[in-house]
Write a structure and sequence with these properties.
5-stranded mixed β-sheet, single chain, Immunoglobulin-like, elongated
């Protein structure tokens, strides 16, 4: 199984209250509604990923056509969810510039996108009329701007995605955006198909924006690409590359759940652009006693077919960066051993990670945390 994550090339938040302010280097991106001086205000954010990286993944790695693409943003602060609230995700229309500003810099930085402008202050304005085909916008009567985006209303393509948040559920964003990513890829092959990748715009629904009601204030703040945490935005691809083909190997499948599991070719340190194939050594903790000249512990066993999964945790925070997934983290096997390929580019560099294994034998499921650790470094 394969999970491949890419990080944004740029992101920024647009604030109706500060129509010329750029926030391209702020550590937070947000899509919030609030009241200021008896007036409803909103923020929306933009996030863009590399077209070349997207094209490379789709054209060279998802060869069997079965793949997913999810936009993932991680919560910094989410408040005010007294009712179910939706965030909407649209593909942006217009080539915007990230800039180098931060929220309420003094003086305000205006060298990148803002509520009014696609790029620096004084460049092209976000359109408020005479929209290109399939493009729209929304704003308050006296606060024009706030981005332009494609909708699905006049397209045969489903490019409008949403995620609903409640008081009790997870506040991180994890939304299927495959249809939008496919249109960007189509455009990269032929400009007559799809439309250009200018990233996503994320906003609340129109009925929640610009409402002068203190009970309507809903804050959605997420970590940006400039965060000093391990939670920058991600575009996460998954595809099925699972195989179980042991050929003429004489190794057998692990017979008991009480076992030793390790990665015998763990180098300990990996460059962030590497894709190691990590191979498992597995053997029962209590092997059957048989008459033989070799050690009972010299045989390597396969992990059970289709029932063995891997996961990766950040060693310091103990949080999963790749969770167990019955479809996309199944462990493969070939004539040599059980294994999985790990794309290190999706892991934050200069940090340590721990590999876990989950497997089922004889109706018993167990998670093995055997202290299998490695570090990712830049390069």
């Amino acid at each position: 199984m394969a999970i491949y994550k890419i990080f944004p090339t740029q992101d920024a938040t647009l604030y109706s209250e500060y129509p010329n302010m750029n926030t391209g280097l702020d550590e937070i991106i947000e899509a919030s509604t609030y009241v200021k001086n008896s007036k409803g205000q909103v923020s929306r954010y933009l996030v863009k990923f590399s077209t070349s990286e997207i094209s490379n993944i789709i054209s060279t790695k998802t060869s069997n056509g079965e793949w997913t693409a999810n936009l993932r943003n991680f919560k910094a602060v989410v408040t005010g969810l007294n009712l179910d609230t939706q965030l909407l995700f649209y593909p942006v229309s217009g080539n915007w510039g990230m800039g180098t500003g931060r929220y309420l810099d003094s003086p305000l930085v205006t060298n990148g996108t803002s509520w009014n402008w696609l790029d620096y202050s004084g460049s092209a304005l976000w359109s408020t009329d005479n929209f290109p085909a399939y493009v729209t916008a929304s704003w308050s009567n006296d606060i024009e701007g706030g981005g332009n985006w494609y909708t699905g209303s006049n397209l045969s393509l489903n490019v409008t995605q949403s995620q609903t948040f409640t008081y009790a559920n997870n506040k991180d964003i994890n939304v299927d955006v495959k249809s939008t990513v496919e249109t960007w890829y189509s455009y990269s092959l032929n400009a007559a198909d799809g439309f250009e990748n200018n990233g996503f715009i994320v906003k609340q629904t129109d009925d929640k924006e610009f409402v002068n009601n203190l009970n309507n204030q809903k804050t959605f703040r997420f970590f940006s690409i400039d965060t000093h945490t391990i939670y920058p935005p991600q575009l996460e691809f998954k595809w099925n590359d699972y195989i179980f083909n042991t050929g003429s190997s004489t190794n057998t499948v692990l017979p008991q759940i009480e076992s030793f599991i390790s990665i015998y070719n763990n180098a300990g340190t990996y460059y962030s652009q590497s894709i190691p194939r990590l191979r498992f050594a597995a053997m029962p903790k209590y092997p059957d006693r048989v008459f033989q000249t070799a050690s009972l512990y010299s045989t390597n066993y396969y992990l059970p077919e289709s029932q063995s999964l891997y996961a990766v945790k950040d060693t310091e925070t103990n949080e999963f960066v790749i969770d167990f997934d019955n479809e996309y983290t199944r462990i493969s096997s070939d004539a040599t051993s059980s294994y999985f390929d790990l794309y290190m580019n999706g892991l934050e560099p200069e940090r340590y990670y721990t590999v876990l294994v989950q497997t089922s034998i004889g109706g018993t499921t167990k998670v093995f945390d055997e202290g299998i650790m490695f570090k990712v470094v830049n390069g």
